[in-house]
Amino acid sequence: MGNNKLHLSDKLQTVMVTATNYAMACNHEFITPEHLLWGLAKCEEFLYAMSDCGRFDETSFLNDLDDAISRTGGSGNSDKKFSAPIPSSQFESVMSYALSTAIDSNKNEVEIHMLVNAILHQKESWAAYVIRKHIEVDDLELLETLYNILKHPDDTDTELEDDFEDGIPDDFDFPIPDIDEPKRDKAQWKSFVTCINDHLHSHNPLIGREEEISRTIQVLCRKEKNNPLHLGEPGVGKTALVFGVAARIESGDVPERLKGFRIYQLDMGTLLAGSQFRGDMEKRLKLIMDGVIQEGNAILYIDEIHNIVGAGASGGNANDVSNLMKPFLDGGDVRVIGATTYEEYNRQLAGRKGMIRRFQTIDVKEPSPEETLHILKSIKHVYEQYHHVKYPDPTLEYAVEVSRKFITQRFLPDKAIDLIDEAGAQAALEQTKYKNISKKDIANGLAKVNHINALAIMQNDNKNLANLERNIKAVIYGQDRAVQTVVEAVQLAKAGLNDENKPLASLLFVGPTGVGKTEVAKTLALELGVKLVRFDMSEYVEKHTVAKLIGAPAGYVGYDEGGLLTDAVLNSPDCVLLLDEIEKAHADIFNILLQVMDYGVLTDNKGRKAFFKNVVLIMTSNAGAQFAEQARLGFASTATAGGAMLKQVKNTFKPEFINRLNEIVVFNDMDQNMAELILNKKLRELQNKLQAKEVTISLSKAAHQHLLREGFSKQYGAREMDRVIQQQLKTMLSREILFGRLKKGGKATIDLVNEHLTIIS
């Protein structure tokens, strides 16, 4: 605070004046906290806060306050006239606590919310009783609301009433006693914790984990360093393990020294909430630890224990929760069970040697699919009773299977339990009681949770896979061999004959521009019912652009944004990933792709793992296309276009890259027949668009042959056809639709006149 003198804020001075004059008006011998509350009742900020925190009735509040004042300050004495009221002991305690709060907060001004906080901290206070009677929230929420109103007075358009202009009498001088912490209620610490023993009935029973439970109980029985620390991925059952220990204690199946113990879960949010003043959090923590010690048979459980590192530290104060806990953990009087993930342990706890040495780590591994199925069968009755449905065993097996396959960012058994819960909730939404939950219900639930088409999830989509080749060939012309190769690779992966830790397929499409490489990828995604994720690799030519795919390193611009590639796969783990024109990418990108094709996983700059196990990876390249035509030249040449492109591909890409590909798919050049089929397809697409304008078109044979002749190009492929249709046909039709004979719809016959397309009728 420097040399600044501690003083009351203007608003608090007004409250003091009001309280003092009211006590004098009533001829009360003592001024009490209840008189201060009367002064607060004339402060509109306080009334606003009370109104926001419950169904506040000012008249009822003042009546209760009058009754409280009559009990504490007296009813007045008509025989003796007091010149000024004397501060009561509770009044002094309130002012001392308020002043102490200001000092601890490094403030030079005592404000209204500090006074209210001090009143609420008084034991057996009528003023505190009246406040709590007229709010529907806890003390912390009231103080937070009042603090925000005081800091943003414009939001309430507050105007303080000041009915007293005489000020505080000269002979009224309330003392500032020594700052002493008020006496605490012995049970007050329990407001910051939740007893797990009392909530066993509302939690799923623990199935298995005998080794982990035994190890936890063993550590708790130690004389020193009797603090287990559960390490495991999110969702593997760390919290359930603590509930299992509590259930063992309740059943008496523990060593004698642990019988009768109770496990209390510390709520870090409650511990830190409202501790805006320096020293508040430390006092709360000491209160909790002292309470645990006094209880004698209490075990403290801290979930996400890594959050204690840095919590409560402010400014130059380095005393966070972790440092404050160390003295209590040394003697063994306080037993603490912690839980955290491997990632957070390595990031925040591993470097705190003084903290970690006081714990004994216990690994909680992800259960196997078989163990998960056993867990589901053991707890399914809980969800059946809740949702009024039935879960057949095949459905549970399917839930384990698809959750393991498609939900890659979470772990068993949590993700499998979520699926059966989701399916049960959907049955309740449909008001279908006592329904047998099917595999389809599980697939639909997973589709909603994981943004995957349900058809792609179901194992009975064999019909769709069987027709995959036919459906793609219906829209892709002249590339039958390439389509067949792609479909065979996908079917092989869907049959489960590939390495499950690799992408479903890793394919390299090679061929000239405009022959359908990208179109095959789009059609494949559409037929499989999954999302197409496309990256144009011409954007990643420079070395520094590589970081955009997996995220920038710490300290660089864009670190907080994550990686484009990893984020895309995290959001759509089941997709067709298209990397267009891969030969243009920087060499470092190929190193990234080697890992993806080999292990099916990629870690971004934040340590998140993106799994490619359900991804069809397609890369396109024009490498070697310029040599395809050369291969046909010469009477004695026996080389094929495909052979020429493959030769160039092997020269362009490294052997280790080529060896990790499932297939190199060579696309043919466009020929006359392919061009005609493409032209007919694009004319049908145009006709479908014109239907919205109630326009139909018909082309003469001459006009059709003109478009085919102009649009056929081996060099530019189908893209040249698009340009010709755009320039010669669509442009003419647009003018007629906007301004001409087709404004109100109709039929247009198009013919070739003087080498130009013309509407003749």
Give a verbal description of the structure.
- There is one protein chain.
- By secondary structure, the chain is an alpha/beta fold.
- The chain folds into 5 domains: 149 residues, Orthogonal Bundle (Double Clp-N motif); 176 residues, 3-Layer(aba) Sandwich (Rossmann fold), CATH 3.40.50.300; 88 residues, Helicase, Ruva Protein, domain 3 (Orthogonal Bundle), CATH 1.10.8; 204 residues, Rossmann fold (3-Layer(aba) Sandwich); 88 residues, Orthogonal Bundle (Helicase, Ruva Protein, domain 3).
- Helix content is 48%, strand content 12%.
- A 6-stranded mixed β-sheet has the order 5-7-8-9-6-10, with helices on both faces. A 5-stranded parallel β-sheet has the order 14-15-18-13-19, sandwiched between helices.
Name the CATH superfamily classification of the largest domain.
P-loop containing nucleotide triphosphate hydrolases
Count of discrete alpha- or pi-helical segments spanning 4 or more residues: 33
Residue fraction in strands: 5-15%
Distance between the termini: 92 Å
| Assembly annotation | single chain
Q: Assign the CATH class of the largest domain.
A: Alpha Beta
**Shape field:** elongated
Contiguous low-pLDDT stretches (5 residues minimum) are 156-185, 635-639
Whole-number average pLDDT? 80
Radius of gyration: 38 Å
Strand arrangement across the biggest beta sheet: 5-7-8-9-6-10
- Number of E strands: 22
Tell me the major beta sheet.
6 strands, mixed
Q: What would you call the structural class?
A: alpha/beta
CATH topology of the largest domain: Rossmann fold
Q: What's the helical proportion of residues?
A: 40-55%
Query: How many domains make up the 3D coordinates?
Result: 5
